[in-house]
């Protein structure tokens, strides 16, 4: 157990960063076409191939990769690079399975805003994202770095350094739920005036430092703590991908995505703000049976997705701070 | 200040209960047509006139009342009674403003499932809901009872008694946000093994008992505490109505509804489950200007809506327990 989304069998993650542009890309790659769903919760999202995941569509069960990127809408090009890598492997949805007709890789993607983080964005006509996407795809494996890495490389979580986080859980009956989050939130991940993450109740084995709220914590509805003060539209966003191995229907996976929103809400405050582009993807490898009565099994997976996501968010910021040597 | 949704100027609330059927109705009545938005977050909702509130529709700015009811889909008839009361006052949307042509009262409504709570549901062809809706409307005023009252009268919040809760906040610059919740959740409102509500960080002045989490709280991802064990579909639901006086656009109000979801997520675990019919209405009386830069003003109202809703949910259960003499 790595406490990473790659604990879900068949899931690889690759990341790439551009230190000069202070930006990066994370790609989540299942080893076979996955079922996918998405929940767009923020007011300023930037997405690609999200419509393919809606009910009634053709290929929501053929997701080849999920791509998360910095770069605002420029970062949507990262999926081009991921598609190129998949094409080189002959992967994709083969609508017309004939020699000479390439299969179409299905790569839903979402971006976060890191254009104003001080990096050099003077990239002329060619943004680095297609290159970073390919690089991330080629690097995909079971291990990857948390904190200032991948899509969260140039991110800021409120006034704290943002980052990429991940976490996983394995149930007693062998189901695995993993989450990866790139945290660039408008809101703060910490309780105001406290070292405790909002996600503290969900922490396992001190994975994000073990800070607990002060006994005398008093709520001020107008105090957002270390949230961003007054961002312009799209300067924020928390991107997430959750992976499960349980076999569920598309409709059930959509419900799990909706329940996973709770994990974001419990880890960040404010959340889903007008300037957040919050997006949650959920993919299922469908490699294991989910037991129990159906609605209860889905409620269980949805709640596990929520808590695992809350943990991944806190870990992303915690690891960035730790590696920067912040207290 | 009553710490009720009726602290929002022009908002009245009426409630009615049927002790034999162990069910009830709550109605929220603005004194002039309000702007309305809705967010349906649960897997098993029961609603009426929710589509009228969507973007691009004709009368989302003419909401005459919001009706919350027990009774599962039978409870949607409560809006009939509310409409009758409004018609008697000549209120409604006048598409054809001619003598003899009644205006159409716009009453978005949602229900919760309390059919299996032991009450006598042998009501033949005529469910009590239209009568209860009218009775609630006629009783509307600035004061109303919390706990086992109104739509939450026959409710259960996980394994705890459900109920109707409310809370409000007034900002330093004079904006008011109020919330009313009928809590019949699948999930628990308390941290497992703890007297503390999940919503404890948002409590103001001990309004729901002041319990705080134990310092040694350890998370078990599979422990839902006092959640319901294995409900059938639609046996649950948290219904909410949030009222604001700030003048916002319909699009902005929809964003506030989405942000308010976070309040439900922070107060109940699991939430948005397949068997929950969670619905949040938000109405604006548009009586005050919301100052500040636009996205920030909306983020602020959305976060105030979230925390006020979390408090209203906890108060509903707390008041039911207190009035039942539970510790």
From TrEMBL, chains A, B:
GO terms for molecular function: aminopeptidase activity. InterPro entries: ArgJ-like_dom_sf, Peptidase_S58_DmpA. SUPFAM superfamilies: DmpA/ArgJ-like. It comes from the Bacteria. CDD domains: nylC_like. Belongs to the peptidase S58 family. This is T4 family peptidase.
